[in-house]
Amino acid sequence: MVESQIGGGVRHRLPVRKLFAASVGNALEWFDWTIYATFSIYFATAFFPAGNDLLAQINTFATYALAFFFRPLGGLLLGRFADVRGRKPAMLLTISLMAGGSVVIAILPTFHQVGWLAPVLLLLARVAQGLSLGGEVSNASAYLGEIAPPRWRGRYSSFFYISTGSAVLLASVLGFVLARTMDKPDLSSYGWRIPFLLGGVLGMIGLWLRRSLSETEQFEQNKSRAQRVRRPLLTTLREHPKAVVQLVGITMLSTLCYYTFFSALTPFAVKTRHANDVDVFLALSIGTALFVALQYPYGALSDRIGRKPQLFAWSAATAILIVPLSTLVKPGLGNLIVVFCVGLGLYAALSSLAPAIMSELFPTELRGLGIGAWYNLTVALFGGTAPLVISALSAAGASILFFWYVAAGAAIAFLVLLTLPETKGSELR
Fold first, then answer.
1. Is the confidence at residue 61, as pLDDT, over 80?
2. CB-based contacts of 232: which residues, under 8 Å, 6+ apart?
3. Using an 8 Å Cβ cutoff, are 94 and 135 in contact?
4. Which residue has the higher pLDDT, 267 or 91?
5. Using the 8-state DSSP alphabet, how is residue 11 labeled?
């Protein structure tokens, strides 16, 4: 336990072991998900016909994007499963699917060996991971929100992206180390398989850790109500339409920020702007370390000043700065460090309290499904397509349009935030 002082002289003990057990599984899920995008620059030609590297890259990102469209299905099915059967069994199931998909990708035969069966098998593995992650985000968010005292929900929420950022940091550091120690032919031949094997092993460790978690009191008190709900997805629209719109608006910009900085910019900087891959991985690692370090302070700040001030600052600054930042994506370690640190430093203001915000939008009997379905549908539409969109626009010589697209998303999010009530210190329904 870690003790901290809160208002009125009352001390609260952070359940560090419980938070770590819940979050480490999420971290491993995101490690497996992230390495696909991070190492795509090396394995794209392994699964698609050789001779056109750009087309192979676009096909690889198309597979990446298609898997995202199974995330809403995973969010719907696994979110409902969590609402009626429990957060813990749902989180055990999601990490098993993710680890299995990672191992399958690590041992897949290449296009040269089995022809078009290779990309088909790759897509199936990615579908399993898409279903998994669709349930993971909603269930882990609900779990953290439900075990948190109302006045500490921002702090508890921050552990979600502490784990996510740590996983992405591990993926980028691994990319940096492999890029420094292996030549590109070896990375393209077999080196890219190493992180997928590691992801499978770490996933099994996360599964073991999650077995020690206890179920949340919120679920136990409301599971009978959840079981009585009929047509739960329609119920979210009929009884909580404003919450659905707010979740979609916030998630649209959130997912654009996440997949721009953690996925799309790495291949864009290397393939289109001709930056050194070692410099890109190092800059991403530095920016991600800052992102992780800011999570808990931002989460604590939202418990003091409220959610909305941070959300307004994040959306407004992103709208103003994203296009100027894009001009710095070019060769030079200093430029790249500025891009990743500024972009991820801003995004941390939202990510630190995202699980708290989402948990506060829906009642317990609809929380898993409500977050899972609408969050993941938005991520599929805007996040999963981000690397594909930036690659296609770059091929057309219009890459700057992608960053204006993100700026427009930030402006829309700012307007949606005007309708959001302040939920600092509120009791979950």
1. no
2. 80, 83, 366, 369
3. yes
4. 91
5. E
